[in-house]
What we know:
A: 163 residues, alpha+beta, globular, B: 120 residues, mainly alpha, 5 helices, elongated
Amino acid sequence: MGLRMGDGRTSVERTSERELVVKRMFDAPVRLVFDAWTKPELFKLWWAPKSHGVPIISCEMDVRTGGGYRIAFGHDASSAMAFFGKYLEVSPLARIVWTNDEGDEGAVTTVTFEEIDGRTLLVLQELYPSKEGLDEAFVGMEDVMPEQFDQLDELLISLGAGV
Amino acid sequence: MVQYSTARLDASFAALSDATRRGVLEQLESGDASVTELAETFRMTLTGMKKHIGVLEQAGLVTTEKVGRVRTCRLGLRGLGEEAAWIDARRKIWSARFDALDDVVEALIRKENIDGSENG
């Protein structure tokens, strides 16, 4: 059905006109997936993959309930675009809820981590204030031409090789 | 990129928000059916099924044709292409992001294994 689409690993479902739910199983225990999500030096390695086209310039995250984050994307400081918000809830190894405050139609994102036989089921829900917010979210992002992403590849390779 | 018509998406998502209507579309994938047949299959009144068909028809997901006393329903030509494309664009973003997260956690696992063997 058109409401749901999966590629075997990542499923994306529009569960209502304001809500998108993404599910993915990771072959790693919760503590590692949670680390990769909450430590800025790890987070910035994966949050902006090649297909997004725009690399992360800076990544500040104060991952605790009431804390804030600010992530800047761009090819240089002058063209940088910042995404920011605050953490409404941080429950270690279980759940993170944050706001997306850069626009009026920003979602509240909830991600939950559940360990199942040593693997991690990750469920991410985006709840938008209006259906237009969701209709238009991400529009254009997949449009940007990939550039300057060799450095991310190098980072991932060096992370894998250097440990 | 493809521009999605918001009004059409609204009508389609509203139409697809109901389990019976999704069931009707699945049923019609295997062949055309009359409103009466669909009402029987889904154990509802003819009036109830007519309403569901009306919503699907408005969204362009189903077309109907009346021949004699029988109204036959079939999948609309437009199908789900637009909605599928909308979802698929988001799936690609998250899939790419989570593939990269996979790489990171795999590296963390390798690091733990190496640390573990060094310490042990």
